[in-house]
Structure formats: C-alpha cells, structure tokens
C-alpha cells in the first residue's frame, strides 16, 4: 500500500469539487440532509469513523453510486428513484462506504499510475484551462477506477455488516441487485447503468448475498418503505430538458434560450459545465462554456495574451445579431501543436465561449465544420422547445386493490407500464394491496 491515509483524504478533497461541478448537486436540501444523515449513522459503526466523510446526492439521471478515497460518497437521483425502501438505499451506501474503509481505491492507485485522458480530452489543454483539466483528469481517473471481484465481494460483505449493525433488514439488499439487473436489461447494451459499468457484477452476486444472509441470525427489521417513498415526492425523473437537450445534432437550452448546431455524426455530451461534441475519428472537439470576462473583445484579448497561443485572423462584429468576437489560433502544449477557432458571444447577460480545436495537421479538414457550428449560435425562439419541462415522481396511495395496469389507467404516467414496473419493483398483472404506495411519473411536455 503506497498511498497513506493522508494522501487518500487529500485526493478525495481535491477531486470532490470537480465531481460535484461535473454532475451538479441535486437541489433539494431535505434529500441531501436525509442521505447524509443515513451515511453518518453507518460510518459511526464502521472501521474508519474519523475520516472526513461526505455524502452527496448528485443531479444525474443514471442509476449510479460511487466513492472517492478519503470518504466522499455520491448517490445519483437516478438510483434513488429506483429504490423502494430506506433499507435498499442504506445497502448501497454501505457498499460504497465499504470501498473506502477497505481502501480499495488506494490499493488500485498503488498498482497503477493515474493515466492521462485521451487525445481529444487532452486537446483542450490549452493554457487557459490546463490547470483545471489537470485536476479534472485525475478526478475522472479516481471516479472510474475498476475494482476487482474480490473488492466487490468485500464491499458487499461490509455493506451487509453496516446495515445490520444499524438495525436494517438485510433481506432488502438482494433486491437491489435484482433491480440493477432489471435496469441493465431494460436499457440494452448501450445503456448499462453507471453503477454496473463501474462495478463488476458477477451473476452469482445476489445468490451469494442471499446465502450469506441465510447463515446470519437476522435481527434487523428496519425497512422503512413508506417513509422512503414519501421523500421521493416531486423528485426529478430522467433527464432535465430545462438544462439543455439534443435533437439529432442540434442542442437546445430552454432556460438560457439559445441553440447551437453540431456536426452531424459527432458524439455529443451535455454536462453542467459545458456542452461538447467529438469527431468520429476522435481528433477534433467543439465545445461551449461560459467565460468570466466582461465583453467579447476583452475575452479575445485575454485569450490572445496567453502563453503558447498565437492568433491568426481576428474579427469583431456579430453572430446572428449578437455581439461577438472570433479568432483563429494555434496553441503550443507540451505534447503537440493545436489549431482552432474560438468565438466569444454576448447574450442575455452571459458571455459564451465557443471553441473548435484539433491538431494543427488536421486544421484544414475541420476548419469548415468549426466555422459552421460556431456561427450557428443563435437565440432560441421556438415555443415548443422553450416550453419543455422535466418529469417528476408522484407518490400515490392505493385506495383499493389493483394491478399495475389498472394503476396506470387510473393514474396516467408519462412512461410505459414496463417502466412503472421497473421503478416500483412490482410485476405487471399482480394485484397490489390497498394502502400501498406506488410511484407514477408526471410532468412534461418533453422534447419532441
């Protein structure tokens, strides 16, 4: 073990702001305090209670949970929407705590030097953002460290230990693995839940835990199903289109009322901090984020003054009637010489930075695509695009016995019966008892 406890804490503390900014924190203080309180109760009974434990619910629709060294635990709102009891939530919190108490990340780091990100992510290492990405790259590597099957089994065992010490019924834990498997099957090959993509999941996992529970003298009885479900009332479900969404190659942002076209066929991503697209050959990048300069002209001057940047053609004027300054440039990094086009656009109190970037040798191949994309930035005036709203969970108490199909007819949802079955962990066709709480999904209109 080459990583000390102090180094673990330092790595987690340094990465936490980047991870929190990347995903965003779910804006519900009651949910944040609730999850943190459960986490603190668990770590008080764990092997390393004196770490600076931190528990966060991140605003991400994926079914996911993860931990950073030093005691930083993250749960997505996406996985919370699929839990149906406090005991299920506690079992996953306990599993992630187990990774930290067993020092699994520290062990993995001791065996491999943190790698740098790939060509295109590295291509944005122009001096303006080099310091930021130096931290972000390391944070991402910490986030996606792969644990061995032995690590996962140990984290399962520790999670089971912590939840039983807290008085929870351990028989709720296997249901989580069944739910994760169902989500994976429903998502298809291209949509494996993040929790499964970063946690190896052998087929015997549920059976192994059930066998282990059978050997225990089960004393814990806490499940807290209704208490948990009532806390989900109003929780955002799925992607939030108010924060931006793609329709084919066009990006729309209703809250900020702008649109931007990306090249057809490029891989796109929308995060809390930037919108970006990567070429199919992974040798070019277009991204949009915010600048903190006062004006397009001031931003262009600051960009041109950076070490390693050499400006070619500069032009001030407008993009679709919006004040803008653009320039071509080359940027010399330690690894290579890059070439690109950057534009600064002032709109509705924000200053947007749009950048197309590639290796200097590829500039001729991508210059037209950069120009077309950056010059497409425009106001969003389409009322349909502006009116989209997120979906949310509503908790309904059954006033009579009914099947899930009957529930969907009486309380219409914006999702299919199959998806209702998944998030409620019930089988279609089975009669559900009076008084049971079920989730439905309301809201919208969604983008179309």
Explain how this protein is built.
The chain has 448 residues and is of the alpha+beta class. 40% of the residues lie in helices and 23% in strands. It has three domains: 5-232, no CATH class; 241-385, Protein Transport Mog1p, Chain A (3-Layer(aba) Sandwich); 391-443. It has helices spanning 5-23, 29-43, 77-80, 86-101, 104-111, 119-123, 127-143, 149-165, 173-187, 194-197, 205-214, 225-231, 296-304, 363-374, 383-386, 404-410, 417-424, and strands at 54-58, 65-68, 72-76, 236-237, 245-247, 250-253, 258-261, 267-270, 275-278, 284-290, 309-319, 322-332, 337-347, 350-359, 378-379, 391-397, 437-443. The protein has a seven-stranded antiparallel sheet with strand order 8-9-10-14-13-12-11. Mean pLDDT is 87; it is low at 113-137.
- What Rg, in angstroms, do the CA atoms define? 24 Å
Instruction: Tell me the total number of β-strands.
Output: 17
Number of structural units classed as domains = 3
Number of helices: 17
The average pLDDT is 87
Helix/sheet category? alpha+beta
Q: Runs with pLDDT <50, length 5+?
A: 113-137
- How far apart, in Å, are the first and last alpha carbons? 52 Å
List keywords for this structure.
single chain, 448 residues, alpha+beta, Protein Transport Mog1p, Chain A, 40% helix, globular
Quick overview:
The chain has 448 residues and is α+β, with helices and mostly antiparallel strands. The protein has three domains: 5-232, no CATH class; 241-385, Mog1/PsbP, alpha/beta/alpha sandwich (Protein Transport Mog1p, Chain A, 3-Layer(aba) Sandwich); 391-443. It has 17 helices and 17 strands.
